Automatic annotation (TrEMBL), chains A, B:
<keyword id="KW-0456">Lyase</keyword>
<protein>
    <submittedName>
        <fullName>Hydroxymethylglutaryl-CoA lyase</fullName>
    </submittedName>
</protein>
<keyword id="KW-0479">Metal-binding</keyword>
<dbReference type="InterPro" id="IPR013785">
    <property type="entry name" value="Aldolase_TIM"/>
</dbReference>
<dbReference type="Pfam" id="PF00682">
    <property type="entry name" value="HMGL-like"/>
</dbReference>
<dbReference type="GO" id="GO:0046951">
    <property type="term" value="P:ketone body biosynthetic process"/>
</dbReference>
<dbReference type="GO" id="GO:0006552">
    <property type="term" value="P:L-leucine catabolic process"/>
</dbReference>
<dbReference type="GO" id="GO:0046872">
    <property type="term" value="F:metal ion binding"/>
</dbReference>
<feature type="domain" description="Pyruvate carboxyltransferase">
    <location>
        <begin position="10"/>
        <end position="277"/>
    </location>
</feature>
<dbReference type="InterPro" id="IPR043594">
    <property type="entry name" value="HMGL"/>
</dbReference>
<dbReference type="GO" id="GO:0004419">
    <property type="term" value="F:hydroxymethylglutaryl-CoA lyase activity"/>
</dbReference>
<dbReference type="InterPro" id="IPR000891">
    <property type="entry name" value="PYR_CT"/>
</dbReference>
<comment type="similarity">
    <text>Belongs to the HMG-CoA lyase family.</text>
</comment>
Length: 316, 316
């Protein structure tokens, strides 16, 4: 491990109100979403994926995308992102003046058909129309590659197939790329290999890693990615999230667990972990259930406890 | 990360019936413990920490230590271990013909007083009497250093203090050392540093890493330890466990999640992951509650799912 070569600053990108909420059993009221995003804006995260401009039939929990995007307080220095599944969603996101549009398709044909209801060629064609629509606007365009570390239907995807899709994204004019482990299938060695290959092929093109903790490897994958030169990570407050089309999947990596690990290793994020933990601790009351994130329960490593009283006596 | 330098074979040491069960709210019947240990003996794990010969008042769940140790089927190639807190426990473990005695104290004075009710000097003196008692028997002696990566009362312990305690263990005649992250406070960078320092100071003295996943860093710590040359890990089926004196702590790292990650990275363990997962999936019925381990719920990365039927039609 090349600890000295770790990035000086890691960007934390919060996705809880999009990826985290989309599969929640209960609809989180619009005002609560807005309040949560406004609070997250004050934590020091680099990006917030606010919502998705998706059909309310497909994702009822995000049916209020327009209201949410229109009402949040935009804090300078934070990039506000919307996931867009198609041209119509992109038009809405542009109308809502989002800083960035996150376009997504799966490298796995089967997952793309299941998740996007499009063939990969249809998805790329939709991307092209979105690039055209965004031309001349200030919006940045990020392209996400879902199932980049494995598809629950097809299995591991060849590295070169993933890289060729990233190449197609960049050829279309997208600004940056996210490699997403949509259903938490990636392992650290695979992550290091793909991140290294991406860096060799695409140099300094901004790269985000989007990990899920489905099989407990989330933070180990972060460590491997850091070692391979990654410096941007998506994460979800409390570890909420998952993919509605990924059987058995649990949550995204938890933002507060991620920032805690980076803090403990001395890797700067600019994020106020105390505020994050406070917000994560408020989630069970908002959602009506426990959260997978662990630091919100256990506290930071540095949160010491008083020694038992009888011990203090015995030690005298 | 030096992937090529990873150990060719990693030893998996199962602690569920000791560390996993000691804080369970319900007593697991003796016959169930024996059946679980006998099943674990067939999975390919290198060691099984069978029980602890501890006062039944201190750990009621392990009050049947003698019956369990006497009734399990000893499988050649598996080392059967008992944790012993003092000379009396050691005498019982020797009488039970255990392959290995695991002696434990904390590097943190406060935690040792809270957990063992002894000062460090008293603990080391007890170790000496155990070494004397074991002399001439075939039992191996392992020394565990609890709170090696941080104490919930005192905080991070200086690396040199940990190494000096390991040195004292070896000077007393112990055969091997475990560095235990008793309450899950360690981070990957710290783990790499301490494992590296241990290796430099003590060469090939067998070293076990005992991690808890209290703050989500368990498998990331394993990765860092592997990279620093560790090849023996304690883990607990289902991720059961914790420390009764560590406020807020959740579980040990999950054996099946650990073996799954190693399998996925191509690191050999000799363990049959399928059997482990089956056993982990049986735990909720045995214990009456859900388990923290994730692979038992999500399945392996390679367990693929059939594509939705309507998608298979659309793809034609």
């Amino acid at each position: 491990m090349n600890w000295e070569g770790f990035p000086e600053r890691v960007h934390i990108q919060e996705v809880v109100t999009r990826d985290g909420l989309q599969i929640e059993p209960r609809f989180l009221p619009t005002q609560e979403k807005i309040a949560l995003i406004d609070a997250l804006s004050l934590t020091g995260v680099s990006k917030i994926e606010v919502t998705s401009f998706v059909s309310p039939r497909a994702v009822p929990n995000l049916a209020d995308a327009r209201e949410v995007a229109g009402a949040i307080k935009r804090r300078p220095g934070v990039t506000y992102v919307a996931l867009v599944p198609n041209l119509r969603g992109a038009q809405e996101a542009l109308a809502a003046n989002m800083d960035e549009l996150n376009l997504v398709m799966s490298v796995s044909e089967t997952h793309n058909l299941a998740n996007m209801r499009m063939t990969p060629a249809q998805s790329l064609e939709a991307f092209r129309t979105i690039v055209d629509a965004a031309r001349g606007t200030p919006a940045a365009l990020n392209g996400s590659i879902a199932t980049a570390f494995g598809c629950p239907f097809e299995g591991i995807q060849p590295e070169d197939k993933v890289l060729r899709l990233a190449e197609a994204y960049l050829a279309l004019g997208l600004d940056s790329v996210t490699l997403a482990d949509t259903t938490g299938m990636g392992n650290p060695r695979q992550v290091a290999s793909l991140v290294g290959a991406f860096r060799r092929r695409f140099g300094s093109v901004p790269l985000t890693l989007h990990f899920h903790n489905t099989r407990g490897m989330g933070l180990a994958n972060v460590l491997a990615a850091l070692d391979a030169g990654a410096d941007r990570f998506d994460a979800s407050l409390g570890g909420l999230g998952g993919c509605p089309f990924a059987p058995g999947a649990t949550g995204n990596i938890s933002t507060e667990d991620l920032v805690h690990m980076l803090d403990e290793m001395g890797v700067a994020t600019g994020v106020d972990l105390g505020r994050l933990i406070e917000l994560a601790r408020g989630l069970p009351a908002l959602l009506g259930h426990d959260i997978p994130g662990q630091v919100a329960k256990a506290g930071r490593s540095g949160d010491l406890h008083p020694a038992p009283a009888d011990i203090r006596l015995a030690a005298k």
